[in-house]
Specification:
A 7-stranded antiparallel β-sheet has the order 1-2-3-5-6-7-4. The protein is built from 2 helices and 7 strands. A hairpin with a 2-residue loop joins strand 5 and strand 6. By secondary structure, it is α+β, with helices and mostly antiparallel strands.
């Protein structure tokens, strides 16, 4: 197995994803096997804006934010496979199948994000994705995403 251990830090992620605070949901890539799988992490902190309302007395990371973190992780795997001008490229999350939430994610948790490439057909990438905390599955889903070039006048 040819798994590359990478120092894929936040600075490299900034060059690949257009997201910024408070919506960038991946802090580091831990492992990457091109064309196959990726493992990344998100440090969940109480400073994140959604915790003020979800929920004030018991902060819980919203499921949609966990799914977004998984989609951003899948995007990083996709971008590792394609050589392109990332500055003019957007990655769209286009579908979710079989999403299941199995554990609450709270401030102080470290979310380990895994995505495995399943197939590419007609411009749609499909991944199996799983988020874990302390080795326990918090969320799993199949994700569909697409990559589009931005129009020059839209930037």
């Amino acid at each position: 197995m040819n798994i590359e251990k990478l120092n894929f830090d936040i600075h490299k992620i900034f060059t690949l994803l257009p997201h910024r605070y408070p919506f960038l949901m991946v802090d580091r890539v831990i492992e990457l096997e091109p064309h196959k799988s990726i493992k990344a992490l998100k440090n969940v902190t109480v400073n994140e804006p959604y915790f003020t309302g979800h929920f004030p007395t018991r902060p819980v990371m919203p499921g949609v934010m966990i799914l977004e973190a998984l989609a951003q992780t899948a995007a990083l795997l996709t971008f590792s496979e394609q050589q392109q001008d990332f500055a003019n490229t957007l990655y769209y999350f286009v579908g979710i199948d079989g999403a299941r939430f199995k554990r609450v994610v709270e401030p102080g948790d470290q979310l380990i994000l895994n995505a495995t490439f399943e197939r590419y057909m007609r411009g749609i990438w499909k991944f199996k994705a799983q988020a874990e905390v302390d080795g326990v599955v918090a969320c799993e889903a199949e994700l569909m995403c697409t990559v589009k070039k931005m129009d020059a006048d839209v930037q």
